[in-house]
Amino acid sequence: ILWDNDKELGENISKATSQSIYYLPYNPICENMAKYLMEEVMPKLFSNCEAKVVKLVLHETPNCSVEITK
Hints:
The protein is α+β, with helices and mostly antiparallel strands.
């Protein structure tokens, strides 16, 4: 996962490793990724059912995490 500003780096990584690169519209730190998941991904993922995501916890390391609640 890379920032949109790092497309050249992503292309080089993809060419060297054949890995897919996913770009975020901002720096992919834990807080920003959690916000993106909560605001963009989760509503689409659960749009066809009655379930709602009310809390998301994303761990960057075993001792470092971010928690978002709605």
